[in-house]
Amino acid sequence: MTRKKAWITLIVTVAIAWGSLAGMLALGWAPKLGLDLQGGFAVTLVAPEGTDQDTLNTAADIMRRRIENLGGVQEPEVAVVGSRAIVVQLPGVTDRERALQAVGTTGELSFRAVLGEFRASPALTAPDGDHPEGLDPVTGLTVADDVTKRAYLPSQDELLVYDVDGIVVTTPSGTVEFPTGADITDARVQFTSGGFGGQWVVVPEFTSDGGEKFREATGYLAVFPAGSPQRQLAIVVDGVVFSAPAVANEVQPGVGLDPNAVIITVGNAEDAEEQAQNLAAILRYGALPTTFERERVESISASLGADSLKAGLAAGLFGLLLVAGYMLFFYRSLGIVSIMGLTVFGSFLVGTIIFLGQTQGTTLTLAGVTGVIVSVGITSDSYIVYFERTKEEFHLGRGLRPAIDHAFKAAYRTILTGDTVTFLGALLLFVLAIGQVKGFALTLGIATVVDVIVAYFFTRPAVYLMGRGPLGEGGAFSIKGAMGKGEREHVLEAAEVSS
Predict the structure, then answer these.
(1) Is the whole-model pTM more than 0.70?
(2) Three-state SS for 236?
């Protein structure tokens, strides 16, 4: 390595490390913090006895997509624990009840016929004078929510009798099967520019069988007059009416809607977009392969998370000060190289964590902070290996500059071997572990890769240049002063005697 090449390598490495981190901070980027650092809550759900692992994995995947689709939750962590449980961690949640609804809504999604809207029309009652079972407490709608039952489909020439006691369909002929969540393949949110200033709509997509069921169901509902609650198609999840859009007036009885042209209108209210997103999420991910009971909800306050973060940072800073003092005491001017190297290493490591958080949603947990602190020891070991190897070469009779060059070749092989073993351990831990242990494994794995890069592109040229400068051989604080001159002379004298 020439002096010019060493300077170029050193400057470029430092510029990339410090510059990239400074650029991210200037953009307002910061590490995304996990549940234990920024607060939030965790929910433990338990499936029935005998639930197989594939069913649990499918349910966990659906829950994850539900929560991500609802928004307001940073990188939800959904993990299968044991043989029956699923643990959902929701860091930084902004709407607790909304996220809990997404986690706890585990029943089957179905489209059902509305029997009546009793809060809006108190006179509309069942023939026996009592409200039918299944009255929704929010909408006031009563629905036939048993997906095994079929509704009656009257023919075009049959009579409909209306009276004060309700609506009675006479002389039923045939049945109609309403669609369920299994009949939905997708649902998209759109904003239409027509109408009064535009409005939010949801466009569902059906399977072929589901589309035919939807056509028949809307054809059945179209026999009821405009404005009647019975003309509404209820979207039911866990026995609760999530939404109940009415069939359009132009839909013909017995004909129904074209399933390829279905649009569910939400409107243009202030929260219409949020309602549309929620409805689309329910349509897409409304059904889980099994039911769950919410066993435990654990809340972590933001203040407790902040305290944990402060404690972790304090521990890291204290460790850095100890390492810096040790390196300066034992290695003199080489300690300056190690301290500067730690800032380069830290910039690369923190910058990588921030980048992964912004692009992949990766969160930094307290276990991850522990991995960062441990990584300080890893990179410090690399400096010690190099510096001690330099001492050995110097004591064997080499000059300072040749000792520095020869020592790096041997030391780098040792560093590479040690970091490879650590990286493989971190990779294995990341694959096999669950929960916050993954955060520790991730930061540890990143740190080992960064350590190899910094050792080659920073430590090597920095020590090379220092060995050829005033701190190389000038004084007790120099590199030569840290080599132990007395020991070298003793070795040389022993070599002369033996010769």
Answers:
(1) no
(2) strand
CB atoms < 10 A from the CB of 16, how many? 15
Give CA–CA dist 43/28, Å, rounded: 31
- On whether the CB atoms of residues 363 and 39 are closer than 8 A, the answer is no
Burial of 46 (0-12, 13-18, 19+ CB in 10 A): middle
Strand partners, 404: none
Cα separation, 469 vs 467, whole angstroms: 6
Kindly compute the dihedral angle of the four CA atoms of residues 386, 389, 393, 394, in this order, to the nearest 10 degrees: 70
Residue 274 CB: number of other CB atoms within 10 A?
17
CA distance 336 to 341: 8
Q: Name residues whose C-beta falls within 8 Å of residue 238's C-beta, 6 or more positions apart in sequence.
A: 105, 106, 107
Three-class DSSP category at 235:
strand
Residue 89 near residue 299, CB atoms below 8 Å: no
- For the chain, domains (ranges, CATH) are 3-31+301-498 (1.20.1640.10), 40-105+292-299 (3.30.70.3400), 109-280 (no CATH)
Query: φ, ψ for residue 89 (rounded to 5)?
Result: -105, 130
Residue 21's closest CA among 358, 461, 307, 440?
358
Higher pLDDT among residues 121 and 325, named by residue: 325
Q: 266 is written with which tokens?
A: 């939400």
DSSP 127: T
Question: What values do phi and psi take at 107, rounded to 5?
Answer: -85, -170
Angstrom distance (rounded) from CA 37 to CA 91: 8
Amino acid, res. 166: G
pLDDT at 239 (0 to 100)? 60
At residue 113, φ and ψ (nearest 5 deg) are -85, 135
Cα–chain-centroid distance for residue 428? Answer: 20
469 vs 499: which has the higher pLDDT: 469
C-alpha closest to that of 418 among 444, 392, 393, 440: 444
Q: Which two tokens stand for residue 295?
A: 């066993």
Beta carbons within 8 Å of 413's beta carbon, 6+ residues apart? none
292 neighbors 81 (Cβ within 8 angstroms)? no
179 contacts 109 by C-beta, under 8 angstroms: no
Question: How far is C-alpha 120 from the geometric centre of its chain's CA atoms?
Answer: 42
Sequence length of the chain is: 499
The count of other CB atoms within 10 Å of the CB of residue 130 is 8
Of 358, 359, 264, 306, give the one whose Cα is nearest residue 31.
358
- Residue 164 is predicted with a pLDDT of 28
> What is the pLDDT confidence band of residue 300, given thresholds at 50, 70 and 90?
confident
State how beta strands 141-143 and 109-117 pair.
antiparallel
CB 324 within 8 A of CB 335: yes
Positive/negative CA dihedral, 362, 363, 369, 371 = negative
